[in-house]
Amino acid sequence: MSSDTNKPEGSNAEPNKPICLIILGMAGAGKTSFTRRLSSKVINGSRPYLVNLDPACREVPYPANIDIRDTVDYKEVMKQYGLGPNGGIVTALNLFSTKFGQVVDLIEKAGKKHKYCVIDTPGQIEVFTWSASGTIVTETLASSCPTVVVYVMDTVRSVSPVTFMSNMLYACSILYKTRLPFIVVMNKIDVVNNSYAVEWMRDFEAFQEALNADGGGETEGGNTYIGNLTQSMALALDSFYSDLKCCGVSAHTGEGIDEFFKLVDESAEEYEREYKADWLKMRAEKLAEEKRKKEDELKKTDSVETVIDKKSLIDEVPIGRELSDMYLKHPGNESSSDDEGTENEPEIDDKPEDVAMFQEFLKKHIKPNDTQK
Ligand SMILES: Nc1nc2c(ncn2[C@@H]2O[C@H](COP(=O)(O)OP(=O)(O)OP(=O)(O)O)[C@@H](O)[C@H]2O)c(=O)[nH]1
User: Which of 5, 155, 201, 301 could pair covalently with 186 via S-S, beta carbons 3.0-4.6 A apart?
Assistant: First the structure.
């Protein structure tokens, strides 16, 4: 492989765009440890570009190039909206996703130096996979750079056939939803070898035997509904398994990491071959739609004189707090109760997507001025 380009061997990937890896997995599967392991891998003279999307983690154990915590203060979000930890994470990610176009600009630029970009996601998988912000992040990335979904599975906790099946069903649902190349990483093989899982995926009868031995298929009264369902699922997942790329790794020892990168390069080629055209088409349609909406909005605001509904705006944030408390805090400014610093001139940000977002915001809070009379 040449050292002056980040283009994967044999792939048509654009040379200046990094291959983005979205790291997903159940809480505790080892996403952060795996990201940390990938961060130390030098490829083509550089390490992967690293993005942390978990607003709630206390420490990021790798040198993140972009860290959501530098942009959104998760604790402040919880306070201001009166949310619990999960609601706080979802809302923080929602706020961040409104700026994700700018993040992707940075990732694209990083492609000049970095062949890979690794994106670590929040601990609770559904926060990312079942939220609007997760979809925005995935779609924005996939329509700009070759993108691969990496599902980290805890090999130690999946030795029970029923747990294994649940994990695979989750993986399958993500594959179905994201429409991107997909790799299952069986982590923690320093503790339990992943050969049992590979055998279950390749040989339905072996899985069936394990299920019976585990008692998952039977009770005193005979076959259970869950047991029958698991068997049917295993058959249904057969075609999912047949094309699935998977490898065993240990985030602790580094075993299996080279094999993983081979699968990543294959997946990037798959993206170019099978997915890219659709994503580009989708992006073009979206841009056209946004442009049309913006023109409609401009026409409307030109023709109707409007005023801001101040009451509903003020109600958004409790008295004594500012919306800006949540956004873009200086790392040294830990809490909203800190002393006020020097006021800086606000940066004027007139990117088209921000203008469109502002128009949306105005639409929600504006009413015709005849209501004021
Ligand atoms: N033995 C072993 N333990 C691991 C491995 N990878 C992660 N762990 C351990 O698994 C636990 C969870 O790891 P994390 O990397 O925090 O997992 P995560 O998926 O990022 O966790 P959340 O973000 O909190 O959901 C930690 O105690 C790690 O030390 C591995 O390859 N081998």
Answer: 155
